[in-house]
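Example 9 (inverse folding). The structure is encoded as follows.
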């Protein structure tokens, strides 16, 4: 899928203030610093579209971007604040949980939630718990392993396999997953093609698939 343009629209703390739910929407979530904002920039081929930082906790709100791809198809990308940042107070954590739970459960055009997992680590409880929660909420999702450029190929394979094996313990079917690097562009075409397929299904069916 060819990206023609991508632009920042708006940031909100409340899903009800988000742009009209009339286009397919893809949101990115995962641990703080896992590479959500960088991945959005890599997919759109625009370096400074979403704000990135080497310090965790950069993204604080629900950030909407509008993307135009081939044949003038419009859709949304959403950059979300991360979880698991140790230096966050209990009250900010509650606020985050409320904001995120409302957004991902109530946003009716949310077509796929991409859960980002750092490919450098062995399976982490916090990621597995978050994904298992999505099952209870019946939210469609896929897993994206990030920062593959930082690994030797064997390490990526080992960590991805271990994570998928953990998922098999709770999920009958393994969810779709992708290995990416925002540095090298690895995985870009596969993720964009996946979005393209979901965009087509969204148009055919009208609303969430
Ligand atoms: N080498 C490498 N570095 C990456 C990659 N993706 C992100 N980074 C770096 O990791 C750091 C965090 O990236 P962000 O994209 O800001 O992460 P985030 O998940 O949006 O973080 P928060 O908004 O704080 O939750 C930055 O220093 C990025 O340059 C990648 O694929 N490869
Ligand atoms: Mg971010």
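The amino acid assigned to each position is listed next.
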């Amino acid at each position: 899928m060819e990206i023609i343009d991508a632009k920042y629209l708006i940031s909100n703390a409340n899903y009800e203030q988000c742009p009209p739910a009339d286009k397919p929407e893809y949101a990115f979530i995962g641990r703080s610093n896992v590479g959500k904002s960088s991945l959005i920039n890599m997919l759109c081929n625009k370096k400074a579209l979403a704000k990135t930082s080497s310090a965790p906790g950069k993204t604080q709100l629900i950030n909407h971007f509008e993307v135009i791809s081939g044949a003038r198809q419009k859709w949304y990308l959403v950059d979300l604040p991360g979880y698991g940042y140790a230096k966050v107070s209990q009250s900010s954590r509650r606020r985050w949980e409320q904001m995120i739970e409302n957004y991902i459960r109530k946003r009716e055009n949310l077509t796929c939630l991409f859960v980002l997992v750092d490919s450098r680590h062995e399976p982490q409880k916090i990621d597995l718990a978050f994904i298992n929660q999505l099952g209870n909420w019946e939210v469609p999702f896929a897993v994206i392993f990030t920062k593959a450029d930082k690994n030797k190929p064997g390490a990526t394979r080992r960590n991805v396999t271990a994570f998928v094996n953990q998922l098999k313990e709770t999920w009958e079917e393994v969810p779709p997953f992708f290995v990416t690097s925002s540095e090298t562009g690895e995985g870009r075409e596969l993720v964009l093609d996946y979005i393209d397929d979901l965009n087509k299904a969204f148009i055919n069916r009208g609303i969430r698939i």
